[in-house]
Amino acid sequence: MTLFVVVSFSSCNKDKSNEKAITPDTATVKKHSRAVLERVLRRNELVATTDYNSTNYFIYRGEPMGYQYELLKSFADHLGVKLNVKIINSLDESFKCLNQGKCDLIALGLTVTKERKGIVEFTDPLTQTKQVLVQRKPKNWRKMRTWDEIEKHLIRDPIDLAGKTVYIQKNSTYKYRLKNLSDEIGADINVVEAENESVEDLISQVAEGKIDYTVCDEHIALVNQKYYPDIDTKTAISFSQNIAWAVKPGADGLRDTINSWLASFKKTKTYAYLYNKYFKNTRTVNFARSEYYLDKQRGGKISPYDDIIKKYSSKIGWDWRLLASLIYQESRFSPKAESWVGAYGLMQLMPFVAEKYGIDSTSSPEQQIAAGVKFIKLLDEQFKDIIPDKEERTKFVLAAYNAGIAHVYDARRLAEKYNKNPDVWSNNVDYYLLNKSKPEFYRDSVVKYGYCRGSEPYNFVNDIIDRYKQYKNANIN
């Protein structure tokens, strides 16, 4: 966005019409710069785009994870809003999403370049990185006596890329760096832009011997070196570059808020922990190698009970990933889980409910899930006639599963009394259930079942729905 600043010179000889014509509309400029931030706060939701890979965002053992995801979550918590993550594995589509106003920021770990500054506005840097060559070590490198023997087979001087073919992600900054490098060494480098391949897809192809070379950012290389010990990522082909988030041009309010938060957050132990967790801790290698790491190409599992969950979710007409999210919320997929109030098993049924459906603490995981689904079906039938919209009704069912249906009925009565819609959950009934721990609400004449620690069912519903969205982001069917 270009801001034209017009300077007004006062003079007793100027008429008022001329003075008005050259006065800058600073109020309009300020309003526009705050518009994105105010929209985020008004709708109580930050919409960000990132990509699905082993560093930025992924699902592991049923839990959304990733460096960019956890940073975004921390920033959304700082703003006091919900986080809505859009997964887009295309740089072009991410820029389009931002500039069409369909998301508020891009959190892909973008390299800051002069060209991109003409499309987006960058935040202060999250970190610095440099571009490195990804190549394969010789086949028998483990049997070689010295590292010098291995080095003979590797490119260490970029000049040796002359005549070589390097595959890169389409529309990435790597293209321009390789072009400049080609000019610098005075020889052609054959650059192939892969149409539908991510950076990590290309790294895996190098490791598997399908291609010889690719290029990636050093911080991505550090992670993938752990997964693929047969690759080498030590050859730098660029100087250090800044990595940042991006906002729409003119979104100064959001950008400045991010920068202020970053300045404080990067000094915390939490930030240091996050960076070490994803880029330095050798145990993170277990993420991508686990069968519970969800990958769009290789598949993966949410839990050990996916097949059982799929079987029983059909009995209530739920997407199986929604039921999986509920089970994760209740027990983290542990059939031995037991709460302080006596609820137990995968579905955390209270003893009197479990007894009704013929299970106890010794029942199998399938029996536990079957009983929990029967209970969900019972709750759903209680709301079916009054809330015909299934998606809306599901939120009431989840709240009733956690807090009991009586408290949800109380919240509906409060909503109706105070001119809110008793058949709509968000910003209507959920508000009154959340506040049912306050005397002015639980002592209201329409309330029949008294006090409820309303934050628990309120968060229960939000957490399950949010995690369900993350499971759908992973595109696992």
Low-confidence stretches: 1-26
CATH topology name of the largest domain, in short, is Lysozyme
**In which range does the helix fraction lie?**
40-55%
Number of helices in the DSSP assignment: 21
Overall structural domain count? 3
Assigned CATH architecture of the largest domain: Orthogonal Bundle
In the CATH scheme, the class of the largest domain would be Mainly Alpha
Q: What would you report as the Rg, rounded to the nearest angstrom? A: 27 Å
Identify the overall geometry. Answer: globular
Number-wise, the strands total 13
Largest sheet data: 6 strands, mixed
Spell out the blueprint of helices and strands.
Blueprint: H1 16-21, H2 26-43, E1 45-50, E2 58-60, E3 63-65, H3 67-79, E4 82-87, H4 91-99, E5 105-111, H5 114-117, E6 121-122, E7 127-129, E8 131-136, H6 147-151, E9 165-169, H7 174-185, E10 190-194, H8 199-207, E11 213-217, H9 218-227, E12 231-236, E13 241-247, H10 252-265, H11 269-279, H12 285-289, H13 306-313, H14 320-331, H15 351-356, H16 365-383, H17 390-403, H18 405-417, H19 425-434, H20 439-442, H21 455-473
Parallel strand pairs: 1-4, 1-5, 9-10
Antiparallel strand pairs: 2-3, 5-13, 6-13, 7-13, 8-11, 8-12
Helix pairs in contact: 2-10, 13-14, 13-16, 14-21, 16-17, 17-18, 17-21, 18-19, 19-21
